Amino acid sequence: MELSAPLPFPDHTTKNRFAVVIPVYNHGATVAAVVRKAMQLHFPVIVVDDGSTDASYDNVKGIQGVLVRRHPRNLGKGAALITGMAEAAKIAHWAICLDADGQHDADDMVHLVGAIPIGQRPIILGHRKGMGAAPWTSRFGRGFSNFWVWVSSGVRLSDSQSGFRIYPLPEVLELDVRAGKYQFELEVLAKAAWQAIPIIEAPISVSYSPDGRRISHFDPWRDFVRNTQTFSRLIVRRIFTPRLWKVR
Length: 248
What we know:
This protein has 248 residues and is an alpha/beta fold. The protein has helices at residues 11-14, 31-39, 56-61, 77-88, 109-114, 136-153, 184-194, 222-239; strands at residues 18-24, 45-50, 66-71, 94-97, 123-128, 165-168, 199-204. Strands 3-2-1-4-6-5-7 form a seven-stranded mixed β-sheet, sandwiched between helices. Strand 1, helix 2 and strand 2 (45-50) form a beta-alpha-beta unit. Helix 6 packs parallel to helix 7 and helix 6 runs parallel beside helix 8.
């Protein structure tokens, strides 16, 4: 896979290696276009098919230059991200993660990579602009998660549910994140803050297709319960760990 980074990325970031990780679960209608757009940035692209039952795997396995890994059954988004980042860590210092449903514009990688300060190893979190067209469940969920990420970590964020991120490798893989589904993306923020890994937000665009092609597997009620369980565990841990009380 190609390891060189193209312009217009800042000079200090081109000295690092980046790989793109795309978790997929039944996104057969959109994943191939997302992958091809990501490949235009000339980073290695790793796709993790998380036990899809549609044509997702068939639609990406033949794209030349893409590394495809497949879970035999659906394990959850967090598990797919871990699989992808473990592969990325073999060749890269950073994993750029984005969703397969088409809501993200791969060109925004330029903004996310450009937000990495010289000499730092932060998580870069894409702050989605234009959420007015988003389903109410997404808008409500973002506010709910932002509050509880703050309570469990001490860090205030604007878009803790964004799936477009850059993770430093191997640091994120060493955080012992237990959540394997969507809650991985929340727990990893809290545990990164506990370990003094900076979290920096950078603006990105978002597209919620009106034609029904975008598929989300986020269940507002089931995942609300899972979020509550995850945050309860994190908050209890923080309460009984005095060194975490002063995290900012």
